[in-house]
Design brief:
The protein is mainly α and 116 residues long. It is built from 4 helices and no strands. The chain is 71% helix and 0% strand. Helix 2 packs antiparallel against helix 3 and helix 2 runs parallel beside helix 4. The protein is extended, with a radius of gyration of 19 Å.
Length: 116
């Protein structure tokens, strides 16, 4: 009986559909910033690794090949683009602002290392 109730509960949970809400003009602008910062992060990562710096992202490894860096950033950005419209409109600014802040800090850090 417990298994049947569990199956019914899981089926009910997965049968509810989430709805994507279209992005506002302001949210589209933030997405453009996120895209730009992500590209800048990928470029500075490739340049830095080429100059002998160690990558700090454990997913990429210490010295990733450029194709690995590009694949990672493209996959991450595609996932971000797919998920963002499903984030509740009330917390979407937090989601986007956090991405902009973190990516911005990483790009600034990468550029500072490259300029040393």
């Amino acid at each position: 009986m417990r298994k049947i109730l569990l199956i019914i509960a899981l089926a009910g949970a997965f049968s509810t559909s989430a709805f994507a809400e279209p992005l506002s003009d302001k949210e589209i602008t933030k997405q453009n910033w996120i895209r730009g910062l992500s590209a800048a992060d990928a470029i500075t990562t490739i340049i830095g690794v080429g100059k002998g710096f160690a990558e700090g992202n454990a997913i990429l490894g210490v010295a990733p090949e450029p194709v690995t860096v590009i694949t990672y950033f493209v996959a991450r950005q595609v996932l971000h683009e797919v998920v963002t419209p499903y984030i509740d409109r009330e917390i979407r600014p937090i989601w986007q602002n956090t991405w902009i802040g973190v990516n911005g800090a990483v790009v600034i850090s990468n550029v500072a290392l490259l300029l040393k």
